[in-house]
Amino acid sequence: MIVLGIVILGKVIYIQNVQGDYWKDLADKQHLKYIKTEAERGTIYSADGNMLSTSIPIFDIYIDFGADGLREKEGKRFYSNLDSLSYNLSQLFKDASPAVYKKKLQDGYKKKLRYYSFKKRVSFEDYKQLREFPLIRQGRNRSGFIVEVRDNRVNPFGLLANRTIGLSRGDTSRNVGLERSFDSVLRGETGQKLVRYAAGAYIPVDGAEIDPENGKDVVTNIDTYIQDVAENALLKMMQENNSLHGTCIVMEVKTGKIRAIANLGRMPNGQYWEDYNYGLGKRTEPGSVFKLTTLLALLEDKYVDTSSIVDCEGGAKTFYGLTIRDSHKGTGRVTVKEAFAMSSNVAFAKLADQYYHNQPSKYINHLKRMRLDQRSGIDIMGTAAPYIKEPTSKHWAKTTIPFMAHGYEELVTPLQMMMVYNAVANNGKMMKPYLVSSINELGTVVQEFKPEVLVDKMFSDATIAKAKACLLEVVESKHGTARALRSEEYLFGGKTGTAVTAMDNRGYNKGNKIYQSAFMGFFPYDNPEYTIAVVIQNGRDSKWAYGGTVAGPVFREVADKIYATRIAKKPVSEIVVRSTNSFQRVAGMTNDLNNLFTTLKYNHERTNGDQQWTSVYLENTAASSVANPVSGGKSVIPDVTGMGLKDALYLLENMGLKVSFSGRGKVTNQSIAANSAYNKGQTINLVLN
User: Fold this and answer.
1) Sign of the Cα pseudo-torsion (146, 148, 154, 156, in order)
2) Counting C-beta atoms within 10 Å of the first and last residue's C-beta, which end of the chain has fewer, N or C?
3) For 522-581, what is each residue's pLDDT tens digit?
């Protein structure tokens, strides 16, 4: 036993003196470790200095019930402050009574919990009050209260450009928008702190920290006023028309700076939110806004001039077994400029087929010249790749050229189409669109982004000038599909577009068709400063479908407000700003409407008496009106919105339809969309308001 005792004692002395450093180091490694501390994320600013996305501190509160100062003198300090602390906590957080808080604190003290999680995500305002409470105000060592600060990402302007600014979710791979594209700049460099493992939790070790390096700030080109105007104009129209989703983009003509980009989608509860970046990430068949590209190609190749005559053949023509129709029937021989202004599908399908059917690559090369086969290059992730069909594709058909010519069989985003319109406004120079102007650190610019030219001369000066004149004709001439949008204050050019799209990818037949409305243009015409693109996807229960009726008023309202605040030389109060609902549609028999407007002394354009039914757009029930034939016929449903009930019943029942209705006044909605196929005996529901 004596020998054994001597051996044990010797081993103890050996471990302490010879192996001591090794075992102490091993113990420290098991109980001490470094953990990351995140840097403060940089702020995203608008061009006018407003914070679009920033970090605010939130506080996590822990308690070390084993703190020496808390337990000295048998816990005298703890127990003498317990009641008053419990009362104050209950009053501040209002989530439990003082008795519940007292019991929670007593239980933690009895169990000597070392890193008890007391409250998470405490706001700065609450934290300021908390640190003045009894016991807590005595400091960490005496109270045991430990505070950890974290950043919480917020968008002070809420909906405003929310999807473009993006979301920071902690996990970079799940971020979207600029928060993702500029994550490496915004997040900074992480630091670290030493923590000790004790009683089942890691407790920070004071004085053993490496401070993080805060992120840099990103300054965007977004103008909060223009963004707000675009967001609200788009929202009002979509709510009024019960649309599915839409986008409104405002670009500076000469620089490519994106001044606003609004994206709204309808939620299951019927509300609208920035749920997806439709302007950059949603590619669709563009419809008639694509006719500008066909016009540019034909003019550049000198196959036509704007005064050349084209026969619209009554508004319908069959190409290799498939029929292309105009929304207005009865049109005959017109000039190319007039055909563009009235948006004749037949005219542009005929011209493209006539000149490019045997040389399709020549037409496709023009589209490539306009960069419609490439991504926009904008400085944000998630942009969609366009689809321009090649003549060598297995999907190429004889009908491809005539259908491409008026906006089908290709897929592009609104921003890509907008770049073409902006280039025309910019005398043929295509600018790269960009969102970020600079990266700043502590108020100093460390990186600046400049305008970038993508195509120095897209087409000849003559071609661009003629195309601009055609875009003006759309708004200013009696043939123009956007005539109801013209302004007395300034000139602008643009193009309406209405594309038939398939609901839920189930094809274009019967009830599966819905309509995409678009308007793209620039202003002021003589010296363009801004280009605006509006694209809205409508639903089955939308009241209106045409680009001039849905997207056009959004363009006009945004343009009016930008002109009034950024361009006009006279006071804003003297400029009449148009609202999205400042016009109305009236439809009926042509002779009746002509007699009505003559009697009421409206300054209207008389409609051809050979056209039995007409729709007329009135601005503020005032002096200007534009007449368009009511669509419909033997095989498709007419658009009866704007009609009185008697006219609608007469027209629909004579086509063999059964009509049910609700409300009174004029027709504001029809259950079967205009231009849809129908069967005799089918019921159509009308809503009057």
Assistant:
1) positive
2) N
3) 999 999 999 999 999 998 888 888 899 999 999 999 999 999 998 987 666 666 666 555
